[in-house]
TrEMBL record:
It comes from Thyridium curvatum. It comes from the Eukaryota. This is Carboxylic ester hydrolase. Coiled coil: none annotated. One of its GO terms (molecular function) is metal ion binding. InterPro entries: AB_hydrolase_fold, Tannase/feruloyl_esterase.
Length: 551
């Protein structure tokens, strides 16, 4: 059937075929007539590859179908579903004598002449088919790389004694996949790519920044959420942050069971600083939080703290340290945890699980026996000096080139992110501004949107709006159709900015009655504002976007 249709196409007769899996009022979905000019087969791609690459598979997916590797892909076991008709391709590329990476491509039959690369998360090794599905439903040809290893997001052991694998994860797999992926897309459709995009959150945000710093012309636009960009600082100091509260059970250590009480007290003191009592803390900086309200001593101001979860003086000191910046010899290593991020601390500071510690074991020292008690400041200095895998995108000046070419970047970060501290995005913004131009010029191509109450790149514990169709937010399924427009969808907003010059002044984010099931209906909508602007409540129903403005 597929072959028959292609023969018709090659003879010059365009078959008007409606895959009709996606509909939107946005103009760029209207004209899609760029049918592939070659078949979806291993042979079709084999002839297009350099010697160091090979085709693993090329599989035709029918409209409405799904694709992925299922549980065999430990990083991304979720298949992309409800796909348009497309060709799903996997390519393997040798990156050194001992290493290789794979990348996947979704090549939709109805192609809109756009290219999209999506990123990964944490240390995840696997092709991110789920996020590829999100972009290809708009008609984009989409790629994702496994970054050169197979692992879950928290597993670092693969990096042991292999600078080549670290480099593949750090930048090489993305760099090579974007370059070869673009060539294959153009060869497959026999047509030039009109616009190229990137979408990624967390490590995905870092990967996008790194690729743009290496090659200013890789993308015309990038949508980056909560980028885990400052790797050498963030990952090396991960052990510092945990060490504050270790060993668990010690008098100074705060148990996980107290976090809810701490979060509730932060809410009690900070919620209304922004003028609205809605269970969402919008102005974490404006809140002068009194930690002592959590003290067990009832003669203090404390009236609200749960008596069985109150903190003794040593724990109060621990809490203060967690909220404070980590500096060495006067230079900032990493900003302190943000108020309102407490419920995420089991992933970062209040835990004896060693996910991030693995960086010191397997990236820095190649010593599996190293334990957190041996932590000292010089390890951070070593990490900054060596940056194993060259993964840290700190060549801020290089981004001036991206801006000069007309590139646009939308970044977003949740204020309640307890994994990647939101202030690290403010810092990045400042580093970029200082290295490229000044703040006013920054606005022409780089915009940061801070999201009150959102946790790490998606989700919320307080009903705060978080969904803008960012990477990882749809989990392989299409998002709600009524949000597929540039007002509510970060990627579509970015495309309008790049292609039509429509600057993005706000993005309306959404939360759902059941955040795991968008079909359950909306809970809240609110605009995210271009930093440093803030949301201002105008009165009326706080759950409706029109009652807020950016000022
Ligand atoms: C995912 O897709 C692959 C390939 O299409 C298929 O073999 C596998 O059964 C699917 N797995 C799940 C869990 O849907
Ligand atoms: C693979 O070969 C191509 C063409 O020779 C080259 O440009 C590319 O850098 C190579 N890729 C890797 C990962 O070595
Ligand atoms: C990752 O797993 C796939 C099978 O799912 C395998 O083909 C590939 O070789 C593995 N990659 C590495 C780097 O081991
Ligand atoms: C008080 O804290 C304890 C554990 O620290 C918890 O089990 C309990 O549910 C909390 N009570 C309230 C009313 O929050
Ligand atoms: C902590 O670091 C941030 C930068 O992330 C800076 O703005 C702030 O002033 C620092 N706080 C203190 C108390 O030094
Ligand atoms: C810091 O830790 C490293 C690794 O354990 C060790 O080699 C080094 O001697 C330590 N430095 C100091 C100043 O203690
Ligand atoms: C901090 O400064 C002291 C004194 O100059 C120096 O010995 C030490 O190595 C510095 N620490 C780091 C981590 O750079
Ligand atoms: C940016 O430059 C200003 C002015 O030189 C300086 O005060 C500020 O510390 C710099 N910010 C960062 C993050 O380096
Ligand atoms: C929310 O949706 C998920 C996924 O459909 C479902 O498993 C869960 O039961 C729902 N929760 C509630 C409270 O309805």
């Amino acid at each position: 059937m597929r072959l028959a249709r292609l023969l018709v196409n090659l003879s010059g007769v365009l078959v008007a075929q409606s895959t009709a899996t996606f509909n939107s009022d946005a103009a760029f979905f209207a004209a899609r007539s760029d049918k592939p000019k070659s078949a979806c087969s291993i042979c079709a791609f084999r002839g297009l590859l350099p010697k160091n690459a090979s085709v693993v598979s090329a599989i035709q997916v029918e409209a409405g179908g799904s694709y992925g590797e299922g549980p065999a892909n430990v990083a991304y076991p979720i298949n992309a579903t409800e796909l348009p008709e497309l060709c799903a391709v996997t390519i393997s590329v040798r990156s050194s004598k001992t290493t290789f990476y794979r990348f996947g491509m979704f090549l939709p039959v109805d192609w809109n002449e756009r290219f999209l690369a999506v990123g990964n998360g944490g240390l995840a090794g696997g092709i991110n088919w789920a996020d590829m599905g999100y972009g290809t439903r708009y008609g984009h040809a989409v790629i994702s790389t496994d970054t050169g290893h197979n692992s879950t997001a928290w597993d670092v052991t693969w990096a042991f004694r292999s600078e080549d694998k670290r480099k593949d994860w750090g930048y090489r797999a993305m760099e090579g996949s974007v370059k070869l992926g673009k060539q294959l897309v153009e060869a497959y459709y026999q047509k030039k790519i009109q616009f190229s995009y990137y979408s990624g959150t967390s490590t995905g945000g870092r990967q996008g920044l790194k690729e743009i710093q290496l090659h200013a012309d890789s993308f015309d636009g990038a949508l980056l959420g909560a980028p885990a960009w400052w790797v050498s600082h963030l990952s090396s100091s991960g052990s510092y942050w945990k060490s504050i509260n270790l060993p668990l059970g010690a008098p100074h250590s705060i148990p996980v069971s107290s976090l809810k009480t701490i979060a509730d007290e932060v809410m009690r003191q900070c919620d209304e600083v922004d003028g609205v009592k809605d269970g969402i803390i919008s102005d974490t900086n404006g809140c002068k939080f009194d930690v002592n309200a959590l003290a067990c001593d009832k003669s203090c101001a404390n009236t609200n703290a749960n008596a069985s979860a109150c903190l003794v003086p040593a724990q109060i000191d621990t809490l203060k340290t967690i909220y404070s910046n980590y500096s060495i010899n006067g230079s900032l290593i990493y900003p302190g945890m943000e108020l309102s991020s407490e419920l995420m601390w089991p992933s970062s500071v209040v835990s004896d699980q060693p996910p991030v510690n693995g960086y010191i074991n397997y990236f820095l020292l190649d010593d599996p026996d190293w334990i957190w008690e041996q932590y000292n400041d010089s390890l951070v200095a070593m990490a900054i000096e060596r940056d194993p895998g060259n993964s840290t995108p700190d060549d801020y000046a290089a981004m001036g080139e991206f801006a000069k070419r007309g590139g646009k970047m939308i970044m977003f970060h949740g204020w309640a992110d307890g994994l990647i501290v939101p202030k690290s995005s403010l810092l990045l913004r400042e580093f970029i501004a200082n290295a490229t131009a000044d703040e006013s010029e920054l606005d022409n191509w780089f915009r940061l949107f801070m999201a009150p109450g959102m946790q790490h790149s998606r989700g919320t514990a307080v009903g705060a709006p978080w969904y803008i169709a960012g990477a990882g937010q749809t989990r392989g399924r299409p998002g709600p159709r009524e949000l597929d427009n540039p007002k509510h969808n970060g990627l579509l907003a970015l495309m309008d900015w790049v292609e039509k010059g429509t600057s993005v002044d706000q993005i309306i984010a959404t939360s759902f009655k059941n955040d795991s099931d968008p079909a359950a209906g909306f809970l809240r909508q609110r605009p995210w504002c271009v930093y440093p602007k803030k949301q201002l409540f105008k009165g009326g129903d706080e759950k409706k976007a029109e009652n807020w403005e950016c000022t």
